[in-house]
User: Fold this.
Amino acid sequence: MDKNNHVVVMAGGIGSRFWPMSSAEMPKQFLDLLGTGRSLLQMTVGRFAGKICPIENIWIVTSEKFLDIVQQQLPEVPRRNILLEPCRRNTAPCIAYVSWSIKSINPDANVVVAASDHYIANEENFCESIKSCLQFTAETDSIVTLGIKPDYPSTGYGYIEADLSYPSATNPNIYRVDSFKEKPELEVAKQYIKENNFFWNSGIFIWNINTIINAFKVYQPDLANTFKKLSPYLGTSQEQEKVNEIFPQCENISVDYAIMEKADEIYVYPASFGWSDLGSYSSLLSLLPHDMRGNACVGGDVRLFDSDNCIVHATGEKKVVVQGLDGYIVVEHDGVLLICKLEEEQRIKLFHD
Amino acid sequence: MDKNNHVVVMAGGIGSRFWPMSSAEMPKQFLDLLGTGRSLLQMTVGRFAGKICPIENIWIVTSEKFLDIVQQQLPEVPRRNILLEPCRRNTAPCIAYVSWSIKSINPDANVVVAASDHYIANEENFCESIKSCLQFTAETDSIVTLGIKPDYPSTGYGYIEADLSYPSATNPNIYRVDSFKEKPELEVAKQYIKENNFFWNSGIFIWNINTIINAFKVYQPDLANTFKKLSPYLGTSQEQEKVNEIFPQCENISVDYAIMEKADEIYVYPASFGWSDLGSYSSLLSLLPHDMRGNACVGGDVRLFDSDNCIVHATGEKKVVVQGLDGYIVVEHDGVLLICKLEEEQRIKLFHD
Assistant:
């Protein structure tokens, strides 16, 4: 475990697809979606802390209003490492802020950036993959993304096209990226799958701190200037006040657009540790343990009769009996009950106004 | 309102067909099934008190373990009028007990006996029907039952066959009973409906106190002797102790078998005030107000999408969203959730062990 390793966990999401479990006040990353007793954020930090880096090198970037939840769920993360965005400006300003913060503490830092609300099946394999990438970025001025070997032609993920004939000089498992692809139509996704050099874009990045700061300077000079000016205030009592001033003026732009699609030295590490962005009840159903009829239940005493392919999530109920449902979501959370066909789940966000 | 009128409400039922709302500790009669803000017991007493008889002439017969609930729901009913059965022995011992109790207070009492958990649609019509019967039984030594003009060939109710060519001498709306019929098969029920002299047996009886006491003496001499011996203790501090001794030894028998099918002077008053024994979720659904797609909802904020013919009862939830269900029961009560096809509701009692 290298003390130069730092891990950034982005925890500012406000998804509503897991309503009624998730809400604007309690988004997905803070929920125990998988019934493990730990939130997705806690599981994410647990995959890194003590394995990839010491706990004091974990950074959480989140919204101001989630500070209490983060401190409650991660009491061991230093308050100094919890960065608060006064408003949402997508991933590029978020990563710029945390990058200058890390640089101010350790100019030799080697950094992993990850979402707080994704699922990883094989944590050992995941850890090895991350370590391999960190070794690579410690030695080279490269940006590495984790690409996931696709299981099926997903239309819900972006893809990374790799040039498999061009492995990196120092790590034969890391390849040059040819291009990033937006979420494709099904026919296009099927074509990607047929070829073997397309990978799901996991949104997990690895780089050393100088590489990313230089990339900001070259490709996003306005953002770079903004956060360079913030540097004298980082770690001081004035930091938050200054961040609140400058953040709203930052361009709303993802790091993919801002840097990835522009920079040259972009690499992909094709991984297969079992990954999902947990973007829907269907994806959650596919990951949870199933009974013989394809049902997945989270919650104490759930009994199913004549039911198939249902996801039942009711951790607050003493008892749940479901009879005669096929392909439904049943969720009870904090006094709110949702029953909805899985195939209609994209409408859930319309239900809860 | 005649001060000789007394009303007996039988509230010892322990049904489980409305699980999870009803339970052994909180049976149906104590629940606000209809979403009116009052329990079925409270609604039943409300139909009589101050209209048919003064509140101090209301008698509740129930199980020992429901005393607290009854006193909580009916604080205005005198404690003396709440009779407690130490065990369940069907309706004949229950009615014998309350009859000797009423007789000890008012030997000229004119009595209505009714279940605590039935539904009455037109309360004014109901009140008039009861008054008409009470006038009849005040003047004659007759037992009157309320017969309900059937809406459909129910196989869930017993029937009363009336001799419509033989109205009573003093009330042209009251007829001699030819026979009582058990719950019939569908074909038989259809035949009953075709003839016009078959009525649903509502289990509501009207008689004067001497008529029923004499009937017990003639047709159930053992029961009569038992409760005659109890008489000196009625209203004393020893009453409950003595009841607890004798009640378990009483025969387990309904008043229908014990008296109705044996006595001669049995009459029926054909009524049409809208009645149901509320024996199932289906019957509850048919009585509750519906939306245009046949759904009935009880509970604050229930929203239905693409759903038909559902009953949703969730008074404890802040919000309920149901999408894509047709013909289902959805009930949340006190931390227990049931989702079940209406057509499978007879299996509900098997679900909750």
Notes: The two ends of chain B are 47 Å apart (CA to CA). Residues 61 and 144 of chain B are 20 Å apart (CA to CA). The interface with chain A takes residues 20, 303, 305-306, 314, 316-325, 328, 330, 332, 334-341, 344, 347, 351-352 of chain B (CB under 8 Å).
